[in-house]
Amino acid sequence: MRILWFNHRDPLHPEAGGAEVRIREIGKRLVKMGCDVKLFCERWGGSRTFEILDGIKVFRVAGRYSLHLLVPFILKSCGGFDIIVDDVAHAVPWFSPLFTRKPVIGQVHHVHESVLNLELPPYLARGVILLERGLKYTYNTFITVSESTKRELVKKFRIPEKKIFVIPNGVDLEVYRPVCRKFDAPSVIWVGRVKRYKRVDHVLMTFKIVKEKLPSARLIIVGSGDYLFYLRLLGKKLNLRDVIFTGRVSEAEKIRLMSGAWVIVSASVVEGWALTVTEAAACGTPCVAYNVPGLRDSVKNGETGLLAKNGNINDLADKIIKVLEDKTLRERLSRNALEYAKQFGWDRAAEDFMRVLRRSQT
């Protein structure tokens, strides 16, 4: 099967996130199944125009905003493909079905409306929200990463349930596993791209409350992004001590930090799945998070972690303190998180993905 895949970023992009990890992990397994996978994405500083990554043929053909305009030309020039995957990781559909009669699948990680109002100026956010609502009229088959996103697609866009297939993200259990003992100091970790909708400012404000109860606690912020400068200023304004901003780290260092942390925290407005939560679970670290779409899928409340009321910093702090103080609870959540992570392998995700591709061709 010859697959043509559209996404803004490739897995090596400096701003790559969970969506790009998913493309790489599923894509390389599709290649092993005999598929030819071509990924078309944007250029970035120092990138090659073409390279093969784990068998995936990566074409970096345009800038961030011009890539959409090239879709009809790419479809016309490629010719030899059997199916298209439009990865709608940034709200705006690729609209490939307008330019080809070949089957097209729309992969949606989460609904972006609440994110766009935070990340973009109001006039621009409204325009992108309208474009996102075009999903319903663009694709006949959807793949998404969680039941929460499926429910949002049905509720907000009135997309029939029968058109949506849920294939959760996986985790490489040979790579993500406990590699060290827990740190001596009570350690809270946050991992991801530092974007406004991730609400890392809530994590800092929450940690101030945690610190008042547990003076020896420390917070580790792992990742980079356009919101990092503001967070550093906020940390100084809150007069926070024992907050470590690591920036981007290697995968090995990320796994070490996840393994040593006592708890991982997430305060996002919304997630598709929250891959870092599952990665931390595979390292034996439970999660405390807001009860929002995506996070309520990757965290089983009371079993693999605890969910707090959305936007309630005091409730988030109380639950973090509870996990840090109660060793019996923490160890139970850790064991359960390890077992839960074992359910999500990339092999299974790729096999399910392949089934949807074949079904769409019939």
What do you see in this structure?
The chain is 41% helix and 19% strand. The protein is α/β, with parallel strands linked by helices. It has two domains: 2-170 and 345-361, Glycogen Phosphorylase B (Rossmann fold), CATH 3.40.50; 187-341, 3-Layer(aba) Sandwich (Rossmann fold). Helix 1 (18-32) crosses helix 14 (346-361) and helix 7 crosses helix 12 (313-325).
Helix-strand layout with pairing:
Blueprint: E1 2-6, H1 18-32, E2 36-42, E3 50-53, E4 56-62, H2 67-78, E5 83-88, E6 104-108, H3 113-119, H4 122-132, H5 135-138, E7 141-144, H6 147-157, E8 164-166, E9 187-191, H7 200-213, E10 218-222, H8 228-237, E11 243-247, H9 251-260, E12 263-266, H10 275-282, E13 287-290, H11 295-298, E14 305-308, H12 313-325, H13 327-341, H14 346-361
Parallel strand pairs: 1-2, 1-5, 2-4, 5-6, 6-7, 7-8, 9-10, 9-12, 10-11, 12-13, 13-14
Antiparallel strand pairs: 3-4
Helix pairs in contact: 1-14, 3-4, 7-12, 10-13
How would you concisely characterize the structure shown here?
This protein has about 350 residues and is an alpha/beta fold. The chain is built from 14 helices and 14 strands. Helix 1 packs across helix 14, helix 3 runs antiparallel to helix 4 and helix 7 packs across helix 12.
